[in-house]
Amino acid sequence: MPPGKKLHASGEDYLEAVLVIQKKKGMVRSVDVSRHMEVSKPSVCHAVATLRDGGFLTMDSDYFLHLTDVGREVAEQIYEKHRFFTEMLINAGVDPITAERDACRIEHVISESSFQRLKKTLTEKK
């Protein structure tokens, strides 16, 4: 992420949601994000405005959301961590619902260097 561009965990969650919906449906509107994240439309509206002001996403004239290059980079990194930790926890015997919830917390607090080291170590053991 470029210097001066700081996101909170909730902002990362919104970017991840836009990415996931975009992969599934192709186009993303605020209402899709609201349903996906199970949050209110006003919450999405506020988050979209904040992320747009930060340069992480844009909204076109038809109200479709689009990740900027920076937004896509952040979303892809978060989504990769989410999938990785969910899979590791499920493989360790954690039930899928708990694994999803815990992975969502872990993805925000682990440093990129620790994540890459962990991923490399586990990949080499396979």
Automatic annotation (TrEMBL):
Name the Pfam families for this protein: Fe_dep_repr_C (PF02742), Fe_dep_repress (PF01325)
Keyword DNA-binding set for record: yes
Iron dependent repressor metal binding and dimerisation domain location is 68-122
The domain of life is Bacteria
Q: Which residues form the HTH dtxR-type domain?
A: 7-58
The alphabetized UniProt keywords are: DNA-binding, Transcription, Transcription regulation
Is NAD included in the keywords of this UniProt record? no
Q: What is this protein called?
A: Metal-dependent transcriptional regulator
Query: What is the native source organism of this protein?
Result: Enterocloster alcoholdehydrogenati
Q: Source organism lineage?
A: Bacteria, Bacillati, Bacillota, Clostridia, Lachnospirales
